[in-house]
Each structure stands twice: as C-alpha cells, then as structure tokens.
Amino acid sequence: xxxxxIIGSGTxxxxxxxxxxxxGFQVNLIDISVPSLEKGMDAIRKNLDRxxxxxxxxxxxxALALKNIQTFTDTKSGIENSDLVIEAATxxxxxxxxxxxxxxxxxxxxxILASNTSSISIGKIAxxxxxxxxxxxxxxxxxxxxxxxxxxxxxYSTSDEVTQTIMNLATKLNKIPVEVNDYPGFVAxxxxxxxxxxxxxxxxxxxxxxxxxxxxxxxxMAHPMGPLQLADFIGLDVCLAIMNVLHQGFxxxxxxxxxxxxxxxxxxxxxxxxxxxxxxxxxxxxxPSIAKKFIK
Length: 296
Hints:
This protein is α/β, with parallel strands linked by helices and 296 residues long. 47% of the residues lie in helices and 15% in strands. It has 12 helices and 10 strands. The strands form 2 sheets. The protein has an 8-stranded mixed β-sheet with strand order 3-2-1-4-5-6-7-8, sandwiched between helices. A two-stranded antiparallel sheet has the order 9-10. The longest helix is centred in the N-terminal third of the chain and has 20 residues, at 34-53.
C-alpha cells in the first residue's frame, strides 16, 4: 500500500495526512476549498515544526514529509490511483454517504475505503457501495500526530483480509490499532460521550460549576483534561451529533443529549472552534477562562 488519499483537510484530515506522510507514504489531501487546503497544509507545517523543536524528527524528515503530500480540489483526480482512501469529512451521515458513492465509482476496484467516523455505522456507509467487504472504519484520535490509538471498526461485511491489512497499516504509522465491532459509538465514544453528557447534566442541574466539575475529574480521576473542556475541544456540535447517534441507535433514554448541550449548539457556542463554549477562548486555547454565562 503506497498511495493514500484523505478526503477533508480539517483538523482530523490534515492530522491523518501528517501521520502517513511522515511515515513515508504518498498522500493526496483533498478538499473542495482551496483556502481549506491551504489552512490544512499550514497546520501540518506547524505540527512538523513542533516535532522538530522537540527533537522528535529532523529537518530532513520534515522536508520529506511535506514533499510526500499533494493537494487536490478535484476528488476524482485525487483518488483514482489510490490504494486506500480515508474519509475525514464532517460527522454527518448524508454527507458521508454521498462521498462514499463517489469513492466507489471513481476508485480502482481493489482500493480500500475507510471512514474516520467517530460514531456512524460502517455498515450503513458500506451499503451505498459495491464493495462492502472493502469498507472499514479508521477512527484516529485528536491530535492525530500525538495520539497513539486507532480504533479499527469492522463493519458487518468487512473482510478478514481488509481488517488485517488496516491493522498492519496502523502499526506502520507507529500507532496502536484496536479492533472493535460496528455498534453505535463503537468503544471510544460509547463510553466517552455519555460521561461528557453527564458532566453537562451536572452543570445544567446546578450540582457544580464548570471549573469544579472539571477539577473533580482531573484531580480525582487523573484525567488530563476535564470533560467540559474536552467537549469544547472536540466541538459541542460533534458531541451532540454523536449523542444523537447513540440515542437513535440504541433507543435508550440514557443517551438523550442534555438540553443545555442542545441549546449551546443551537446558539452557535461550539467550543474552541467558535471561540466560546463552556470556556471563553478569546485569549487562545492555552489560556481559557470560564464563559461568562457560567460564572456565578
């Protein structure tokens, strides 16, 4: 497997491109927007610079990684010769289904199609293709260049061969792959998102404030980041989308998203990406303050 294509140049897409390029793969980074591609490449350069500054890589490795990446705005041109295509678009089922219809049409028959989805059914995605045995989930963790885990989601029809190929591939990226089956939220978000949702309920019901909730989980449970700040980092819209997938998929009221989460997303307070969530990021993500709404 030599040629890799990534659909989407946002935080996850450029991170995945970074991981493959630095491991010696030829990468096509694809997005419909030229400014988005430029922003994605700028993020890759900055992340490579951080690795150089920390002596994790050399300038030569950085230069080679950048040389390994080509950018495309035309999907067909960017995927037609690829061995693996990884979709890293927004967590929206209809968008993903449309992307996979096109991937199935334009990719060579032996190409593997993967999704970086954090919750959407791989079987559902595979159903719009004629190669369900070659469709699989590769759920990278954010930030991709740093986090070791890759949750490899095996769809109902995914073949043994494809699953093993992707498991082996992840190890070549210096990642640790974990195989899981295709149920709503998989493992990572089936456990993480209800915890975040419960933290939001605790705030909503007045059990404690933002700082108190996050401090309890950081000091008491050894979490590196409190659940409310983590929700901001992930994106409250993404958290809501995943909670809706869990709620609809299991039909269990315990997965119902907190009304406060729904209201914040409706208001456009999405966390880091909008500059305001449970915290205010006016001074940057390294110096957040509690959002005024949540200060008593």
